[in-house]
Design goal:
The chain is an alpha/beta fold. Helix content is about 30%, strand content about 25%. The protein has 2 domains: about 35-260, Alanine racemase (TIM Barrel); about 270-395, Lyase, Ornithine Decarboxylase, Chain A, domain 1. It has 12 helices and 20 strands. Strands 1, 11, 12, 13, 14, 15, 16, 17 and 18 form a 9-stranded mixed beta sheet that branches. It has an 8-stranded parallel beta barrel with strand order 2-3-4-5-6-8-9-10, surrounded by 4 helices. Strand 11 (about 270-280) and strand 12 (about 285-290) form a beta hairpin. The termini are far apart. Mean pLDDT is about 95; it is low at about 140-150.
Length: about 400
């Protein structure tokens, strides 16, 4: 999106605000499907946790995507957005058996990554098809917090425990219809992904009634000019060849599934924030914005680098700034970054703000969460209102304590 367009959105709806470009989301979806266009059965399940706004989910549904969910709440959001239960896969971690059973009643595809839960669920509901999440013991991902397929990860059932899985399946008579893995996010090395895929293929040979194999996602997207990214086209060519060989040896065609989140929405998102003040110290020039890690925590949590542009003065002379927020703790978005000259009241645009940004926001410091806008057909559509003071009070119960008695107000 052009700087002028983003600035108009900020002027119309205020700041801070998230803006998502629907055209970019669609382009990424088509790019991924094109990379695997030689696969007879392909299913793209969008990872809801990346960006869960109901209007974005409806747009994903219109593109033909399914959903990857990690909670019963995300499942219900998907159903509310119009997705069919059969097009939703539920991959929780550490949840109760009761939640899994509640989701199963909705007709959603269940994906289990715990031997104990697998045995309990299989004993009680052997008639319900289940997918199994495997931990391939592969270290992959751009940060330890988002690397989830290594040997010490809490996610997935270890490949060394395959005999235990087979024993549970035989004893319960349950139906395993899918095999799944997810090794991490920001994976750049295609060979690492292919290596993990081989482990999944070997695991799949143990189950004779599979309907799909889910390879997760984790494709790296560029975060700055000249940044490297996953070569989806090369990956599609390599994995398609290997997948076809597997299906031939398996005796029938099954579905190849992915669950991208960041790949589909990261580059489509922009976070716009106004500069409240310029603060000069002996060594640093701070640009202090009307936001903080309550709205965008990725730079502080993951060390991620979002490209920042001064859309109020895009052609101005470049100077060095540290971009910081208004939170009562250190909330530095960028240190000594070259940006076009910034003045108070200017609006800054943080790029790659579509994935794991608004969904990880909070009301820390009792600040309001921002609004969201979807840019579609050359028009800005408000898809989430900015919070107000009343939203902070919602669900709170006010009591007063007088003379050792509590009084509900």
């Amino acid at each position: 999106m052009k700087s002028e367009t983003l600035l108009n959105v900020a002027n119309e709806f205020g700041s801070p605000i998230y803006v998502y470009d629907a055209q970019k989301i669609e382009a990424q979806y088509k790019r991924l499907t094109a990379a695997f266009n030689k696969v007879k059965k392909l299913k793209i399940n969008y990872a809801v946790k990346a960006l869960s706004n109901i209007s974005v989910l409806k747009f994903m549904n219109s593109l033909g995507a399914g959903l990857d969910t990690v909670s019963i709440q995300e499942v219900k959001l998907g159903l509310h957005a119009g997705f069919k239960a059969k097009d939703i896969i539920y991959t929780p971690n550490g949840v109760s058996l009761e939640e899994i059973e509640a989701v199963a009643k909705l007709g959603t595809q269940i994906n289990i990554d715990n031997l104990s839960i697998l045995e309990q669920f299989g004993s009680k509901h052997p008639e319900i098809p289940v997918c199994i999440r495997i931990n391939p013991h592969v270290m992959a991902g751009g940060n330890t917090n988002i690397s989830v397929g290594h040997i010490d990860s809490k996610f997935g059932i270890s490949i060394h425990q395959i005999p235990h899985i087979i024993r549970i399946v035989e004893n319960t008579g349950m139906h395993i219809n899918g095999i799944h893995m997810h090794t991490g996010s920001d994976i750049l090395d295609i060979d690492v992904f292919i290596y993990a895929s081989e482990i999944l293929f070997e695991t799949a040979k143990n189950f004779k009634d599979l309907e799909f194999i889910d390879f997760g996602s984790g494709f790296k997207v560029p975060y700055k000019e000249g940044d490297i990214e996953t070569n989806i086209e090369e990956f599609g060519e390599k994995l398609t060849t290997r997948f076809k060989t597997f299906c031939k040896n398996y005796g029938r065609e099954i579905t190849l599934a992915f669950e991208p989140g960041k790949f589909l929405v990261s580059e489509a998102g922009f976070f716009l924030a106004k500069v409240n003040a310029i603060k000069q110290t002996t060594s640093t020039v701070f640009a202090q914005i009307d936001s903080g890690f309550n709205h965008l925590i990725r730079p502080m949590l993951y060390g991620s680098q979002h490209e920042i542009e001064n859309i109020s003065n895009p052609k101005g002379k470049h100077r060095f700034y540290s971009i910081v927020g208004y939170i009562c703790e250190t909330d530095t978005f960028a240190n000594n970054r070259r940006i076009a000259e910034i003045k108070e009241e200017d609006v800054l645009a943080f790029k790659n703000a579509g994935a794991y940004c608004f969904t990880m926001s909070s009301n820390y410091n009792s600040r309001y969460r921002p609004a969201e806008v979807l840019w579609y057909n050359e028009k800005a559509h408000l898809i989430r209102k900015r919070e107000t003071f009343n939203d902070l009070l919602t669900n709170q119960v006010s009591i007063e304590i007088k003379n050792n008695e509590t009084i509900v107000k």
